[in-house]
Fold:
Amino acid sequence: MHHHPQKISRRTAIQAGSVGILGLGMNHVDALRAAPVQEGKTHRAGSAKNVIYIFLSGGLSQHDSFDMKPDAPDNIRGEFNPIPTATP
Structure:
């Protein structure tokens, strides 16, 4: 007597894989449901008056961002010089 393994259709395999992938991101749901409700304000309102939001989908190099490397050699340093700021 020969036992032939049951064939799995492509649709069933994709459904099983997608359920598994979706389940990977669901491990924190129980902790969120069990979190206690906090009454009143949990934090104070922010004091910022302006925000600069830079949206870049690829990212930029350190020459174009906040790390200008002013003490680097000429072939590494960018063409711009840093300006004084109040940021630590």
Observations:
- The CA atoms of residues 2 and 8 lie 18 Å apart.
- The chain has a mean pLDDT of 74.
